[in-house]
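In this section we walk through a basic example: taking a raw amino acid sequence and producing a predicted 3D structure, encoded as discrete structure tokens. The instruction is simple. Fold the sequence below.
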Amino acid sequence: KKKALGGFADELLKAKDLVKYEYYLLNGGYQLDARWRLGAELAKEDQTHSAITRRSLDLDARAFGVNLTYRTPADNSVALHARRTDRDYPNRLSVGTVFFDNNNREDRVTLIGLWRYSGLLRLEGQVGYADITHDQLSVRDFSGYTWRAGGVWDTTGKIRVNFAAYRDIRLYED
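The resulting token sequence is shown next.
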């Protein structure tokens, strides 16, 4: 659980918007043999806004994911991850006298590779496909490929450098 002050993008909003976030996650796995692991996760996310003008951004989301991972003795791995997220916005958005809802479903499938190049350098890459479908506002739908490449370089025992590049989609609401 956390609370945060809402963004200031809406210049007409002269009130404080305190956003309350609640996130719950349950995940686990089963080691099929020395190299294969099967996992699953359940997640729930709630967001509520204190400002009346931003109540249309209140969110109730539920997600379910499964993954299959193959890990080598050198601790390199390849994983296939699938996840579905259903997002419900209980307070409809009004534009004039017309009401819309932002409810949507997101389906993702991702292939993830992790390679330990050395004791000091780990590289990670992932490629996937995301499909986001809205119940009403189909102009906000998205389907396409996503990717991420990055790594961690432990230069010394006290210094660590993270680097990443990616193309992905996320919901932005301020």
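Looking at the output, two observations stand out. The chain has a mean pLDDT of 88. The chain is about 0% helix and 65% strand. In the next section we compare this with other chains.
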